[in-house]
TrEMBL record:
Heme c 2 binds at C175, C178, H179. It is found in: Cell membrane. The cytochrome bc1 complex is composed of a cytochrome b (QcrB), the Rieske iron-sulfur protein (QcrA) and a diheme cytochrome c (QcrC) subunit. It is a multi-pass membrane protein. Heme c 1 binds at C81, C84, H85. Residues 68-147, 162-240 form the Cytochrome c domain. Residues 1-15 have a biased composition (Polar residues). The chain crosses the membrane at residues 260-279. One of its GO terms (molecular function) is quinol-cytochrome-c reductase activity. It comes from the Bacteria. This is Cytochrome bc1 complex cytochrome c subunit. Residues 1-24 are annotated as: Disordered. Its main location: membrane.
């Protein structure tokens, strides 16, 4: 006679065996899952790639032309800049490292003729540009490839169509102490100076704020936002298009120069007329 305990153990063992067998996977299931995953991933990648190429149709050409610009820029750099900045842009005693300065710094320095520098001095002076626009872009592409740095600004911030009043306020707060409230420039210490901003292109003004050349501080996008930079450019271009309503502006150097002019020429003229009238009566 079979006891109840033995019967229950037998039933339990049989049920457990069935559950174990029913949960076991076939070796082919794993292979099938891997194949499905590979096919899905490969198909998605192929679809994404074809879509991207369809949208931009020139992706491969752009990459190729970009690498070509870097190669040409490296040749120009080695021939014209490596003497001071080293063959790999790491810098020497005669010139700082260019790793991480970005394309914007190159476009400003080379595009305004400050680089290559004619001689060492308190600061690089603006002079005729030594390279063509395409060569400047190639140099910028090469230096940008050395390390991440500020890129050249978008054209939408260079149209001088922002808020001139807001730009004037920002300029007075951040720039006027060196460049004068009218952008006429001014003297600094040790033979350095803040240049006049009249006639400077909108692109170079933006790049100067972005990269901080010479003695100028860097105004990155956290300090002055791109649209605020555009407002400052709008204010400076407004000054160029609207001459002083008072007539002769005396270089826009402010009340000191105007007061000095009155003292020397105004009072001098009065004294001269007084002496002439006295001599005439005598």
């Amino acid at each position: 006679m079979i006891s109840k305990n033995s019967a229950s153990k037998s039933v339990t063992k049989t049920a457990g065996t069935k559950r174990k067998r029913s949960g076991r996977r076939s070796p082919l299931a794993t292979v099938s899952l891997i194949l499905v995953g590979l096919l899905t991933t490969g198909g998605a990648y192929a679809l994404f790639t074809s879509t991207a190429n369809a949208d931009s149709g020139t992706t491969a050409t752009t990459a190729s032309s970009s690498q070509s610009a870097v190669n040409q820029g490296e040749k120009l750099f080695n021939a014209n800049c490596a003497t001071c900045h080293n063959i790999n842009g790491s810098g020497t005693k005669a010139g700082p490292s260019l790793i991480g300065v970005g394309a914007a710094a190159v476009d400003f320095q080379v595009g305004t003729g400050r680089m290559p520098a004619a001689a060492n001095g308190p600061q690089a002076l603006e002079k005729p540009v030594a390279f063509t626009n395409s060569q400047i872009q190639e140099l910028a592409a090469y230096v940008a490839s050395l390390g991440t740095g500020p890129a050249e600004p978008s054209s939408k911030y260079l149209q001088a169509n922002g808020n001139a009043a807001k730009g004037a306020e920002l300029f007075r707060i951040n720039c006027a102490m060196c460049h004068n409230v009218a952008g006429a420039g001014g003297a600094l210490t040790e033979g350095k100076f803040a240049p006049s901003l009249k006639g400077v292109s909108a692109k170079h003004i933006y790049e100067a704020m972005l990269t901080g050349p010479q003695n100028m501080p860097v105004f990155n996008d956290l300090n002055i936002k791109p649209q605020e930079k555009a407002d400052i450019i709008t204010y400076l271009k407004y000054l160029e298009k609207n001459p002083s309503p008072g007539g002769f502006e005396l270089g826009s150097l402010g009340p000191v120069s105007e007061g000095l002019f009155i003292w020397i020429f105004g009072l001098g003229a009065i004294v001269a007329v007084t002496v002439w009238l006295t001599a005439k009566s005598n």
